[in-house]
Amino acid sequence: MPETLLKTTKIKKLESKFDALFETTLLKGIIGEKPENYKKQVKYWFSSKTFEKQIDKIIDDIYLTSISFTDKQVKKAVKSSLFIGSTLNLYSEADDTPLVLTEEAVRQADDLASEVVDSIVTMLKDEGIYKESPQTLEKRIRELWGGEKYRSTRFVRTFTADVATATTLHRYKQQEIQECQFYAKIDDRTSPQCRMLHGTVFKVGSPEADKYHCPAHHHCRSAILPITIFTEVNPDWRYENRDFTKQMDQNFKFTETEVDKKIIDKTFKNIDKFNEKYRIDKFILDEDLQKRFVRLGVGVNVEAPTTKVKTPKVKKETKVVKEKPKKEVTKTHNEVENTIRKHENKIKNRKTEKVYVFDKDGNIVFEKSGNKNSVKFTPDEAELLKGNTLTHNHPKSSSFSKADLQTACVRELKEVRAATKDGTFIIRMKDGSEFNKTFWDETLSTEFDKQLKAARIKHDIRMINKEMTKDESVVLTSKVVWAKVSQNIPELEYKFVKW
Fold first, then answer.
1. How many Å apart are CA 111 and CA 99, to the nearest integer?
2. Res 309: pLDDT
3. Is the pLDDT reported for residue 64 higher than 80?
4. Do 97 and 50 contact (CB within 8 A), yes or no?
5. Can you give the pLDDT at residue 85?
């Protein structure tokens, strides 16, 4: 059973901190004041710069905690792909200018505090003690607040869950995770909403993912998991294919029990009502996500294989070369090499990556363009990699990423190449065999991590001393790491061929 973000100790501590802040601010406006002044004083404290800054800091920490958790989750899901970049420093100091989500949190907290005050005042009047002195009322006020506290706890948990999940989905999008899956803990406490959505796969960034992610109700315990190239996806799990009358067990297997369609329709309506009343407006979240990520200095430099699974069609931008019946002509090694180099020369100066896959005779199996950091393959394309040579360009002139070799091993490529403006990096097995997953799991991955750690320590010091930039460090690190890895693993042949 995977660990879920909303059940982590760090998120729970942030919820407690938020809840305590609400309580402290509320009582500041009530204790020691006359009942007729409660509303005015509570409004004053919830509108204060102190409260605003404290809320803003808590939201920063929700973001940072969610990002850190999500990065670890994705890294684990893609079998420890390479994450190149600075480590997130949780609870770090940031620019203290409140952003739009902070303003929304203050507004919601202020509205709730006003409702709580109205309730307390009504009870004081009903009990005939409204005119008593503040000192006499203090004990009763605290007792009445104890009966109202569930409302602030519910608000805090829902707000935190909404922000944390929105941050997770935004991070997935940054890392080019294409799909995600709703995950609920199935037991006798599971709500009808989460029971219905459990197992459903959404496209990241789709209206459905934005609408039906957790929290689906107050005190929601569910999570959104990443779908990667290593995830086996049943097409019937996908939202567009889902028959919600059929539910899934904890392991995403459909059960024989069917739910009446009227109940399903009612459950969706309940989610819609909850979203309308309690969820943060999407425009506010989207604006805040963009600005707060920049303010916190959070970026992403990750090349993670995020291929969707079991998609029947090849994407339109992929050019697949259909083989025509012809006489077999075996080309020499030099002829094949010259053919590959010719195509590498075409892409070496591109600002975005492009892949060519060649068979043993130098024929193009398919070619595909990507973005500045990666090229993603559909399942059909991934199947075409086995036993072939993959070359692609690296716009920053770096050597291989860990994800490059991970994909090579998982998909059993014969050779991997990375073309740069200065030349081409080439890596293969010395005995001419294909890369394989066992080699990755037992040898290559561990050695890479070891060398990466050593190189980063050295290069981070040089960055601190301003002897090199971050981009220069990334490029140099990749070159040093693979040179060391190939020295320590005799089965590997690694070289750089200049133009």
1. 19
2. 37
3. yes
4. no
5. 32
- 167 vs 469: which has the higher pLDDT: 167
Q: How far is CA 382 from CA 173, 242, 412, 428, in A?
A: 21, 26, 10, 18
Using DSSP, state whether 320 is helix, strand or coil.
strand
d(C-alpha 6, C-alpha 15), whole Å: 10
Question: Residues 388-417: pLDDT tens digits?
Answer: 999 999 998 999 988 889 889 989 999 999
Give the other-Cβ count within 10 Å of 364's Cβ.
15
φ, ψ at 41 (rounded to 5°)? -70, -40
Which residues pair with residue 254 across a beta bridge? 248
Kindly state the DSSP code that residue 392 receives in the 8-state scheme: E
What residue type is 17 in one-letter code?
K
Q: 139: which 2 tokens?
A: 């004990």
Dihedral angle sign, alpha carbons of residues 275, 278, 280, 281: positive
Cβ atoms within 10 Å, residue 218 = 15
d(CA 209, CA 200): 10
Is residue 73 within 8 A of residue 181, CB to CB? The reply is no
Residue 420 near residue 445 (C-beta atoms within 8 A): no
Q: Please, what's the largest Cα pairwise distance for the chain? A: 103
3-state percent breakdown (helix, strand, coil) of the chain, nearest 5: 50, 10, 35
- Give the Cα-Cα-Cα angle 143, 145, 146 (nearest 5 degrees): 65
Distance of CA 331 to the CA centre of its chain: 45
Q: Is the pTM of this model over 0.70?
A: no
Q: What is the pLDDT of residues 424-463, one digit of tens each?
A: 999 999 999 999 989 988 999 899 989 988 887 777 677 6
Question: Is pLDDT above 90 for 12?
Answer: yes
DSSP class of residue 87?
A: P
Q: Which single residue is written with the structure tokens 């394989």? A: 436
Residue in the block written with tokens 């303003």: 103
Dig out the tokens for 342 from the structure: 């010719």
Strands 415-419 and 423-429: antiparallel
| Contact between 35 and 137 (Cβ < 8 Å) | yes
DSSP string computed for 203-256: ETTSHHHHHSSSPSSTT---EEEEE-TT----GGGBGGG--TTEEE-TTSPEEE
What burial class does residue 348 get, using C-beta atoms within 10 Å of its C-beta: 0-12 exposed, 13-18 middle, 19+ buried?
Answer: buried
Residue extents of the structural domains in the chain: 5-295, 319-498
